[in-house]
UniProtKB/TrEMBL annotation, chains A, B:
Protein family according to the UniProt entry: Belongs to the spermidine/spermine synthase family.
PABS domain location: 2-237
HAMAP family for this protein: Spermidine_synth
Positions bound to spermidine: H62, D86, D155, S156, T157, D158
Protein purpose: Catalyzes the irreversible transfer of a propylamine group from the amino donor S-adenosylmethioninamine (decarboxy-AdoMet) to putrescine (1,4-diaminobutane) to yield spermidine.
EC id: 2.5.1.16
GO molecular function, one term: spermidine synthase activity
Pathway: Amine and polyamine biosynthesis; spermidine biosynthesis; spermidine from putrescine: step 1/1
Catalyzed reactions: S-adenosyl 3-(methylsulfanyl)propylamine + putrescine = S-methyl-5'-thioadenosine + spermidine + H(+)
Protein name stated in the entry: Polyamine aminopropyltransferase
Length: 283, 283
């Protein structure tokens, strides 16, 4: 028997993974949730049929979402994660002894439950005493926060469906307000290669540039995401992502990472010309 | 009607492109050659069913194969391309007025003919008076060369089939001998993500390290190649790929590029830890 999971990256491009078996299938108030097991990627999570993470390459996404801002602001104490119900961002964050409190705001409780059961590789640290999980809409949660967080990680799904509001100007403005005067926001930013993704990326970048004085985009190679060339936003009130990189300090912490290192940190902000041009078009 | 081209990146991973129509199908002495037209990627070339290039993303591969070494050695005059029958490397090279002579050694004459007819975007510069095409086995051609070239570009297919010999220690040793004392060799190096590709990449790297005093690996995002994370080798007798980068000089030439720039040049050599570890294992 052959069982294949396929995702259309565009109407004309399809990425398929051979599946050993489906471990879970459920429908929450917000979305359809599936977990599959596969030879090539280990277990993987899809929401409404879209790839969220695989055990084989999720380290790239989560390391790049967490260690990039933490190496710029290694004394961050209070962190807000919007989305991130798989627990991957939490896993990387709790490695920092100076982090005192992590609020995770996930709209879909069932995602967290399913990940705890089926994806122990990422959902391993929800029990850390510094973590508080709020099952709420991130858009509403952030409205009441002011001058509270050192770091906000917007670990959203795509800019349609339940995650749509997390790509709006109102949301980014509220993130700005919720951050302390030296706070940083990072967000997943889609890709610049396929047209529809590039348009979404430009829209998000435009709104972030309007909200934050410092706004730069960085990249990573994530094989299971459309085009494999994934972008992230780094937005900040004060710190520059490269000039303020605390490389010596970060390296002294002695973390073992599989993707991130402080040289790659600098390299990740050196974007191809075609991406730079898309960004400049909306700056 | 739906017509899909699929390539298995591993036995368990498949990448598929919807095709408008097949423009060419032929069999040479060496391999099967196909050209397809598609909405998403424009025209694309496959050899024995493996993706070689698409009109949409070939600029990434060719710019990274040519401008990386040329920005380190901008006075290179005599260049050898092994493989590269699609003409993409030639197109980027002939932009340099100081380049005086380009030998292209392609084993399969039919590839050049088919590309000239169906891929004018890459096969546009075979008529440049500095270009000489040799329809020979690169492995044999290189044996008789000594102290002749400033730059050798190994634009090979995969390390099986007709391109197999271009990944051997004998071949890299002959490239060393064929280069002048400040010569550079670049080669396509597969990927580090899927196991079989990673093993091929390690094997090639080990052989290059044994032949050249300076040997570094750099990366690019190429969406239609397995994992999208593609590696290249930079091997040299004298020049370091970053310390000897002539950024001011290269930028003064005023080339318009879509992927390459001199900041990205430096960033491309900052590899993820898991790739660095694979390389160190064989150094």
């Amino acid at each position: 028997m052959e069982l294949w999971f396929s995702e259309k990256h565009t109407p004309n491009v399809k990425f398929s993974i051979q599946v050993d078996r489906q471990l879970y299938c459920g429908q929450s108030e917000f979305q359809r949730i599936d977990i599959f097991d596969s030879k090539e990627f280990g277990r993987f999570l899809t929401l409404d049929g879209y790839m969220m993470l695989t055990e084989k390459d999720e380290f790239i996404y989560h390391e790049m979402m967490v260690h990039i801002p933490m190496a710029v602001h290694p004394t961050a104490k209070k962190v807000l994660i919007i989305g991130g119900g798989d627990g991957g961002a939490i896993r990387e964050l709790v490695r920092y002894p100076l982090v005192e409190h992590i609020d995770l705001v996930e709209i879909d409780e069932l995602v967290v439950e399913v990940c705890k059961k089926h994806l122990p590789q990422t959902a391993c640290c929800f029990n850390d005493e510094r973590v508080t999980v709020h099952y709420q809409d991130g858009l509403k949660f952030i409205r009441r926060c002011e001058n509270e967080y050192d770091l906000i990680i917007v670990d959203s799904t795509d800019p349609f469906g339940p995650g749509e509001g997390l790509f709006t100007k109102e949301f980014y403005g509220n993130c700005y307000k919720a951050l302390k005067e030296d706070g940083i926001m990072v967000n997943q930013h889609e890709s610049a290669f396929y047209l529809d993704d590039a348009v979404a990326m430009q829209r998000a970048h435009k709104r972030i540039v309007e909200s934050f004085p410092i706004s730069r985009v960085y990249q990573a190679h994530i094989p299971t995401y459309p085009s494999g060339h994934w972008l992230f936003g780094f937005a900040s009130k004060k710190y520059h992502p490269i000039e303020d990189l605390k490389a010596v300090k970060w390296n002294a912490m002695g973390f073992k990472t599989r993707y991130y290192n402080t040289q790659l940190h600098v390299g990740a902000f050196a974007l191809p010309n075609y991406v730079e041009e898309l960004l400049k078009d909306v700056e």
